[in-house]
């Protein structure tokens, strides 16, 4: 029988739940607090006394059970596993396709960059989205270095129609989970400095596997080319593609 990701998740959670039960029942203070909490909630539910006693039983029962559970590290491990599974289920790593598209981090962010003649420099503020459903560059504007911080989602940075200045241009992307694609005009040199816990990198038609790895790559003409991009990326889990168009 093939073990799918949901079965693996449920098996892990069941093992942790059994471990949690064994730890509570083998620890006398925890067991006493849990029993008192359950009995207090039962008494509050059945009580016909005045409101003060009912409220006291409810409060004591909830606090007793909460303290018993939250002081046990296994319950936190269960929560971490559940959060990690929820985040990673948004993408099928084997088939390279999205799942659970309704989740906010599965929305794609498309950043199409255009440039115009530079004007006098002044400060500006840009509000970025946490989950990648944002488009940058719908209007023509002066080139500015890109700095993106995202929790999760698919991100596309399109420089395909951009005439970059003859200088070192910088793109910084920091993201938790998701796939990232950077479309670079042919004739532009790229220096890639990438770190990731889990994922892969595609650069110059070569693929590199990432496992808590720091990777630094250069285009062949990086030292001679006047138009250069420094691409600095940090990803917790996800694939990165640098595509020349």
Entry summary:
With 245 residues, the chain is α/β, with parallel strands linked by helices.
Give a description of the structure.
The chain has 245 residues and is an alpha/beta fold. It has 4 helices and 12 strands. It has helices at 5-25, 28-46, 51-70, 73-88, and strands spanning 91-92, 97-98, 108-112, 135-136, 146-152, 154-158, 168-177, 180-184, 189-203, 206-218, 228-237, 240-244. Strands 3, 4, 5, 6, 7, 8, 9, 10, 11 and 12 form a 10-stranded mixed sheet that branches. A two-stranded antiparallel sheet has the order 1-2. A hairpin with a 2-residue loop joins strand 9 (189-203) and strand 10. Helix 1 (5-25) runs antiparallel to helix 4 (73-88) and helix 2 packs antiparallel against helix 3 (51-70). The longest helix has 21 residues, at 5-25. The radius of gyration is 26 Å and the shape is elongated. The two termini are 44 Å apart.
Q: Which whole number gives the mean pLDDT?
A: 76
Q: Share of helix among residues? A: 25-40%
How many DSSP helices?
Answer: 4
Q: Structural class of the helix and strand makeup?
A: alpha/beta
Order of helices and strands: HHHHEEEEEEEEEEEE
Strand content: 25-35%
How many β-strand runs?
12
Instruction: State the end-to-end CA separation.
Output: 44 Å
Uncertain ranges = 133-142
What would you report as the Rg, rounded to the nearest angstrom?
26 Å
Rough outline = elongated
Q: Describe the sheet with the most strands.
A: 10 strands, mixed
């Amino acid at each position: 029988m093939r073990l799918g990701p949901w079965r693996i998740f449920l098996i892990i959670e069941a093992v942790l739940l059994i471990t949690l039960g064994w730890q509570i029942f083998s620890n006398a203070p925890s067991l006493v607090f849990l029993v008192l909490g359950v009995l207090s909630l039962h008494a509050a539910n059945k009580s016909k006394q005045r409101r003060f006693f009912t409220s006291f039983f409810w409060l004591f029962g909830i606090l007793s059970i909460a303290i018993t559970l939250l002081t046990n590290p296994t319950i936190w491990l269960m929560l971490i596993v559940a959060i990690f599974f929820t985040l990673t289920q948004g993408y099928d790593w084997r088939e390279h396709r999205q799942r659970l598209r309704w989740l906010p981090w599965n929305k794609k962010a498309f950043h199409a960059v255009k440039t115009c003649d530079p004007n006098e420099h002044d400060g500006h503020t840009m509000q970025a989205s946490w989950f990648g459903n944002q488009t940058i560059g719908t209007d023509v504007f002066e080139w500015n270095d890109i700095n993106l911080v995202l929790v999760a989602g698919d991100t596309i940075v399109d420089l395909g129609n951009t005439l970059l200045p003859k200088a070192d241009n910088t793109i910084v992307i920091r993201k938790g989970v998701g796939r990232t694609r950077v479309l670079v005009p042919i004739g532009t040199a790229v220096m890639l400095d990438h770190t990731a816990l889990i994922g892969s990198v595609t650069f110059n038609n070569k693929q590199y596997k990432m496992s808590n790895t720091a990777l630094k790559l250069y285009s062949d003409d990086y030292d001679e080319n006047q138009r250069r991009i420094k691409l600095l990326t940090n990803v917790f889990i996800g694939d990165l593609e640098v595509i020349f168009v």
